[in-house]
Amino acid sequence: FKNSPLPSIPNRLFYFARNRPEGKVLEPVGVFEVPKQQGKYETGQLFLHSVFGYRGIVLFPWQARLYDRDVASPVSEKVDTSAAHGSKEVKGKTHTYYQVLIDARDCPHISQRSQTEAVTFLANHDDSRALYAIPGLDYVSHEDILPYNSTDQVPIQHELFERFLSFDQTKVPPFLARETLRAWQEKNHPWLELSDVHRETTENIRVTVIPFYMGMREAQNSHVYWWRYCIRLENLGVEVVQLRERHWRIFSLSGTLETVRGRGVVGREPVLSKEQPAFQYSSHVSLQASSGHMWGTFRFERPDGSHFDVRIPPFSLESNKDEKTPPSGLHW
């Protein structure tokens, strides 16, 4: 098992290495398909993640707005400035992401590069700070999908696989959404929905940020609004670098500006190399206001000991304006 960018060779059988009492053996997994340049993948599509190398299956797509600060907009184009905070106007472009399940057998192999319990929700009891996660749930960009097919009726090991999907060999792909999946998507849409993606590259380090509104809770006679944000760091160059510090600025609509500094992220100082170029994590922020903004920098260290700062693209923290009741945990 190799946790590095993977090539897709259509119609080529691929294998995963597995440890057995008699030693390491190769097990056939499936046959690669041609990645889609146009259109979306369907519910039930099996795939290999091109960056993190895990097996997964598509539950449903999300249409997001990608604000890419590395792409200059032509002067003649109308610019959507709704996410253009700072000195640079950015045009939002529609981009497809997918809600997916991660194969539980692969989670131990990717845990150092990507959190497998990154999709979190507010708990449904009185503790306003209580969060819980669904293991093995992820969001994947269209270009990270390497599609494959398999004759296995249960090709993905995940506790929700058979609860969400049923096998029908007459269909392509042969896994169909059960009513439980459709109901789960509909009921939890506000807390699952991915809408805005922000991306910026500094000195070959690309930072992608996806914010998610989690809901509001009452605490000490005030309203506290919660967001989750997922960040991916990618080394697009050949030089090995290590993340050393984070520096955040958090602005609240109530008028407060908070500065947060610290070592690394989520207790780690990941190394980004050509072999393992990416690191992905999620964190949380709460405000006593219904909206705000975040931006900042990551400080990286080169092999010679010198440092450089990488910009975190500014992004908005928005609450659901039509929210009638706060979420009460994850609905089934």
Account of the 3D structure:
With 332 residues, the chain is mainly beta. The chain has a single domain (13-318), classed as Immunoglobulin-like. 7% of the residues lie in helices and 48% in strands. The protein is built from three helices and 20 strands. The protein has helices at residues 107-110, 161-164, 179-192, and strands spanning 13-20, 23-32, 46-49, 55-68, 92-102, 120-122, 131-133, 137-141, 145-149, 165-167, 175-177, 196-202, 205-219, 222-235, 241-252, 257-263, 271-272, 278-287, 291-301, 307-318. The strands form four sheets. Strands 1, 2, 3, 4, 5, 8, 9, 12, 13, 14 and 18 form an eleven-stranded mixed beta sheet that branches. Strands 15, 16, 17, 19 and 20 form a five-stranded antiparallel beta sheet that branches. It has a two-stranded antiparallel sheet with strand order 6-7. The protein is globular and about 60 Å long. The model is unreliable at 73-86 (pLDDT under 50). It comes from Xenopus tropicalis (Western clawed frog). One of its GO terms (biological process) is DNA repair. Interacts with PCNA and POLD2. Interacts with SSBP1. Interacts with PRIMPOL; leading to enhance DNA polymerase activity of PRIMPOL. Interacts with POLH. Interacts with POLD1; leading to stimulate DNA polymerase activity of POLD1. Its main location: mitochondrion. One of its GO terms (molecular function) is DNA binding.
